[in-house]
Model the fold of this input.
Amino acid sequence: MTSAIAVRDLPVAVIGGGFSGTLLAINLLRYGVKVILIERSSAQLAKGVAFGTRRPEHLLNVRASNMSAFPDDAGHFLRWMHFSDADEANRFVPRLSYGTYLRELLVQALAKAGKDARIVDGEACAIERVDSHARVKLANGSILPCRAAVLALGNFPPLPHPVLEGLPSHLYQADPWDRTALEGLAELEEVMVVGSGLTAADVVLSLEASGFRGRVTVLSRRGLKPLPHAERGPVVTPIPDPELRGTALVRDVRRRAAEVGWRSAVDALRPHTQNIWRRHSAEGQATFLRHLRPYWDVHRHRLSPTVAARLTELEEKGRLRYLAGKLCDAQAIDQRVRISYRPRGADRQEAVIVDRVFNCAGPDGNLHRLATPLLRHLLDAGRIRSDAHGLGVDVDHLSRVRDRKGNPQDDLLAVGPITKGEAWEIVAVPDIRRQVWNLARFLADEHWVGGEGL
Done:
């Protein structure tokens, strides 16, 4: 049996080398914790999907001033970019630049850690508890002993749409991030994008940059589109953590928006959003998801002013339009697709003929539908379960994964967007960097410092 001291000397295995996993590994190494970082796609290491884009038109949706990788060093990214004045701090830089920043941070951390850090190119397919420690099995048969394993799997693949699944692959792009998604577009007349969030905005810009000169129709249930950031960051007056809940909280936010502007009112909630979510019951959270989530998303997750201006220009030229309605049917006809949808508030159906369809409906959170070997193993073993709303993996406030019976596990943890059910706001850099920093301190027993814990 492995002794307690020997277990303490084992590394933490971080499964997933995108933003969440990379930043967790860097923070663990900062606190002297040994790390194995496991990533199945070397091209995504230290970047993930979001920052692994090669397209310069994909900009960050957060100002440079708030993109430091470290919550205890707010100006780190600005210094790395050699930005010095307020105008530069307000810039929305290309995401590929941020990917370079992350990779450089990882290389520096690895160089400093020496033999205490290891990068493994492979796919984790099982996590087992053995005596007092854990071990990760890879698809190639390798076994990696560790004191704990952390799932840092990033966003899951796009939510499948049952109406579109029967379309042939050359007419339907189920994953907009597939590197072949933008091939053969120059001669097309019209494409449809299903979903109207930030991913849809990326796809519209990439279509334009790839030579597409037709029209893009964006279809979503409510026809909403992300709102833009202000050119300069709004002045936000800190507010106490709101105690109001439900409709009373919504009324209060609307009141403040009328006084200080909607951007300032929403941004003032940011330090408290996760606590607000946690204070609501599962029923209250479900009500928010059902009725308010789309409106929250367009106000909270905004576009850079440059991107918003370009989309507006395309709309004014008639090359981009937004439709509100329910997708009812999709039929392949003569190398095109006939889309039938019911406009919002109407009883009749209308049809649109397009050349290609892109699924931008957002990530799938159904663990049972995600057929990766690791998730199948963990589900079958009863070591993970879905959160109450099917958004991802159920965890507690310390990021410990709950097993089938709801018990948190000290040797299996999770970070990033897959923990949305516990934290709700955990998809943007400012939120994830705080989460992984806290977890690194927890695993290093540094969370007792600074008046916390004892």
Summary: The mean pLDDT is 91. The first strand starts at residue 12 and ends at 15. The CA atoms of residues 104 and 353 lie 46 Å apart.
